[in-house]
């Protein structure tokens, strides 16, 4: 049986056995198990991970490929083991371009925050990348993925997202993202959409299923600098924070705000400029 502090080297990786914070540093959720780091940060590709070592599971891939500037792809059979609870910052700031088509998230995953943070060269999101109901934190998941144009058709936010920062800047700085899949919704448990689409410069429409529901308290800069965004956006919330929700700094398409909110005019007034017409 492994003991706290044990390490194990195999293939491209060194594994460490200890207690890990799963959601964030000093969170109440921590587990004992194996974590993993690469041995050589300069490689262009990496082989699959071990699922267990001495009958104890791999539970985190936190920052595994963070800032790996030479990383281009992973082996075609690379998977995230189904024992993993956190993929926090797994590919953050790396130069990865392609992910295996069969890559998916484990059913018991808790934290995927920043998994692709600033992965600016990433071109594809595999269709099997969906967020399991177990996930508690997905903030910054796609933040800075400035090369992706779409996300998988069945990508959804799970209904148990509760923390006010769990969806923060989910698609921020996805400069080439054009559409969200029809059927994409905001769960009733979420209470903030702050900066969700900030600087999505190519985003053209939000799906008809996208509704700023009555439990949302913060839409501040939700669609800041999204000049190509057009169509009708339904807002049923009376948020406490809504500054510059649809503000643009250059010529932009018109949008229409509708819904049961009594604050539509106030929301529109924080976005007044000569660049966009907002109709209520």
Report on the structure:
The chain has 280 residues and is mainly beta. 2% of the residues lie in helices and 14% in strands. The chain has one helix and nine strands. It is elongated. The termini are far apart. 40% of the residues are buried. The mean pLDDT is 93.
Q: What is the count of helical runs?
A: 1
Low-confidence stretches: none
Structural class, please? mainly beta
Radius of gyration: 20 Å
Measured as a percent range, the helix fraction is under 10%
Break the fold down into its secondary structure elements and pairings.
Blueprint (H helix, E strand, L loop, with lengths): L6 E4 L2 E9 L8 E9 L13 E2 L2 E2 L153 E2 L18 E5 L19 E4 L5 H6 L8 E2 L1
Parallel strand pairs: 6-7, 7-8, 8-9
Antiparallel strand pairs: 1-2, 2-3, 4-5
Key traits:
280 residues, mainly beta, 3-stranded antiparallel beta sheet, elongated
Brief synopsis:
This protein has 280 residues and is an all-beta fold.
């Amino acid at each position: 049986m492994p003991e706290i502090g044990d390490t194990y080297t195999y293939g491209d990786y060194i594994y460490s056995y200890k207690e890990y914070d799963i959601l964030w540093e000093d969170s109440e959720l921590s587990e004992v198990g194996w974590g993993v780091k690469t041995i050589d940060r300069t490689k262009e590709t990496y082989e699959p991970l071990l699922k267990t070592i001495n009958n104890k599971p791999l539970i985190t891939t936190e920052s595994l490929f963070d800032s790996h500037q030479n990383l281009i792809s992973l082996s075609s059979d690379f998977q995230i083991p189904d024992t993993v609870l956190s993929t926090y910052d797994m590919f953050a700031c790396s130069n990865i371009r392609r992910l295996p088509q069969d890559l998916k998230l484990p059913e018991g995953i808790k934290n995927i925050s920043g998994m692709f943070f600033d992965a600016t060269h990433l071109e594809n999101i595999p269709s099997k990348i969906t967020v399991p109901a177990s996930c508690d934190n997905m903030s910054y998941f796609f933040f800075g993925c400035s090369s992706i144009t779409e996300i998988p058709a069945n990508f959804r936010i799970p209904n148990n997202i509760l923390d006010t920062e769990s969806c923060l800047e989910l698609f921020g700085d996805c400069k080439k993202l054009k559409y969200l899949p029809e059927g994409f919704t905001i769960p009733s448990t979420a209470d903030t959409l702050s900066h969700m689409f900030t600087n999505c410069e190519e985003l053209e429409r939000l799906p008809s299923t996208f509704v700023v529901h009555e439990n949302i308290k913060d839409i501040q800069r939700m669609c800041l600098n999204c000049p190509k965004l057009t169509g009708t956006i339904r807002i049923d919330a009376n948020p406490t924070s809504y500054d510059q929700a649809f503000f643009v700094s250059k010529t932009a398409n018109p949008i229409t705000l509708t819904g049961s909110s009594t604050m539509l005019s106030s929301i529109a007034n924080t976005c007044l400029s000569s660049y966009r017409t907002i109709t209520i």
